[in-house]
């Protein structure tokens, strides 16, 4: 269990990136959603003890994260949004190097590194330079290095960004496999990924948590209130959650208590919940 209380981060230029964040997160795969600039990376870096907040507290299991960052680091795996790699270093040499930095014993390295290479499907390319890896291989390497030391808390900042559909699917399989008996916090812009992989999601907007719940509870208030139409309704008939295109034709997702003209009922998705929260700017939604 991860408990965050009244967490605030004010950067030196006066930007409030986090404003009184309260979150209680169970183990398993947890999604963290929010638009650009919502504060996701600030929250992730703070949880990973890489920067200090202005105020607040964070407790992971029995660790007071802000008072005992070294204790946290021993149970933490972190994949940042982007990470540099040493040129000329092979995948296996870099994993050995990171394992030593993490304080793993030689015996632990000997067993864990081959296991992680197999898990992330990198055994065949273990002696190739990471600098020359494709985007997908690099992200799988990022997961492998984050898993060194068998961490209890795994923080992944946009792990699927820029991946092709096949690599994204491969990474999903990997994340589901590793999330058993860990708390995996997955930050992403891809709402679908969270809906597919996570049993709980938190939504951050302008540095504040506007929703955090188990997936069925997040979607429950939307049942029988989501509609789809190719025509834009009058503002009095429905709230337009978003407009997308299907085969080049407009497609409106709508929120209304009663069926808007020409609209058909559809099953609510996490994306509907996300857009509804954005529409209301984080204020309480009357559902
Ligand atoms: N070092 C910094 N100094 C000043 N402001 C910062 C700094 N880092 C982030 N910010 C600001 O804090 C706010 C939150 O940024 P953050 O990167 O945490 O958001 P995010 O949700 O991760 O965004 P994105 O999805 O675009 O990565 C933004 O307004 C950003 O400009």
UniProtKB/TrEMBL annotation:
Where in the numbering of this chain does the ABC transporter domain appear? 2-231
Q: Which keywords appear in this protein's UniProt record, sorted alphabetically?
A: ATP-binding, Nucleotide-binding, Transport
Write down the Gene3D superfamilies for this protein, in alphabetical order.
P-loop containing nucleotide triphosphate hydrolases
Among InterPro entries, the record links this protein to: AAA+_ATPase, ABC_transporter-like_ATP-bd, ABC_transporter-like_CS, P-loop_NTPase, RLI1
- Single GO term (MF): ATP binding
Recorded family membership = Belongs to the ABC transporter superfamily.
Q: What is the protein's given name?
A: ABC transporter ATP-binding protein
Q: Which organism is it from?
A: Pseudoalteromonas fenneropenaei
| Classification lineage | Bacteria, Pseudomonadati, Pseudomonadota, Gammaproteobacteria, Alteromonadales
């Amino acid at each position: 269990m991860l408990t965050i209380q009244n967490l605030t981060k004010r950067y030196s230029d006066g930007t409030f990136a986090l404003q009184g964040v309260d979150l209680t997160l169970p183990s398993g795969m947890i999604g963290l959603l929010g638009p650009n600039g919502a504060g996701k990376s600030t929250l992730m870096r703070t949880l990973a003890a890489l920067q200090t907040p202005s105020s607040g507290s964070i407790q992971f299991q029995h660790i007071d994260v802000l008072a005992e960052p070294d204790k946290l680091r021993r149970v933490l795996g972190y994949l940042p949004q982007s990470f540099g790699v040493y040129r000329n270093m092979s995948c296996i040499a870099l994993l050995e190097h990171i394992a030593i930095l993490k304080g793993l014993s030689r015996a632990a390295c000997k067993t864990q590194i081959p296991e992680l290479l197999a898990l992330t499907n990198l055994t065949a390319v273990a002696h190739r330079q990471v600098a020359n890896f494709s985007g997908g291989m690099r992200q799988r390497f990022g997961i492998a290095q984050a898993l060194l030391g068998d961490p209890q808390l795994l923080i992944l900042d946009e792990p699927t960004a820029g991946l092709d559909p096949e690599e994204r699917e491969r990474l999903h399989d990997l994340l589901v496999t590793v999330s058993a008996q860990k708390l995996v916090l997955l930050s992403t812009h891809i709402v679908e990924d969270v809906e597919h992989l996570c049993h709980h999601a938190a939504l951050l907007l302008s540095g504040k948590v506007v929703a955090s719940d188990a997936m069925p509870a997040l979607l429950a208030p939307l049942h029988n209130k989501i509609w789809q139409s190719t025509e834009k309704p009058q503002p009095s008939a429905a709230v337009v959650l978003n407009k997308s295109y299907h085969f080049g034709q407009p497609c409106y997702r709508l929120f209304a208590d009663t069926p808007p003209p020409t609209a058909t009922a559809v099953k609510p998705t996490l994306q509907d919940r996300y857009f509804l929260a954005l529409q209301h700017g984080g204020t309480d939604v009357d559902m």
